[in-house]
Amino acid sequence: MERNQITSTDEKNGILRYFWLALGGVSFLLGTAGIVLPLVPTVPFYLLTAFSFAKGSEKFHRWFLSSSFYKNHLADYKQDRSMTWKTKLRILVTVTVVMGTGVYAMQHMPIAKWAMISVWCIHLVVFLFVIKTRRVSVS
Q1: The whole model's pTM is what?
Q2: How many CB atoms within 10 Å of residue 28?
């Protein structure tokens, strides 16, 4: 009877492992798409990717933490919940250019245009007033 419980537990762990890996893969793709698509957020999907890969596989988790995507978008923020002005400015300029292009392209779709403008305003508020700004130490 004890052996059946172990086999059942192993099967559940295997199913959960594949679930976390699949969720991590999907969230990674969505986060990567968010780099160029205006209304798809990058950072939340990358956070979900890191969490999912950590739950599903230590190997995938280490790979994700060593990726340039993670290092460029999340590593500094994860360290102390803050970003440098340079990082904030790089993200805001990219978001502004991409969303500005989308707003321009959606001139005949007022609801979509105003939705994008609203999301852009939320980005501004979050990056300027919610996320702490870390000073760069000169060493």
Answers
A1: 0.54
A2: 22
End-to-end Cα, the chain, rounded Å: 63
Please, which pLDDT band fits residue 88 given cuts at 50, 70 and 90? confident
Closest CA to 72 of 51, 54, 91: 91
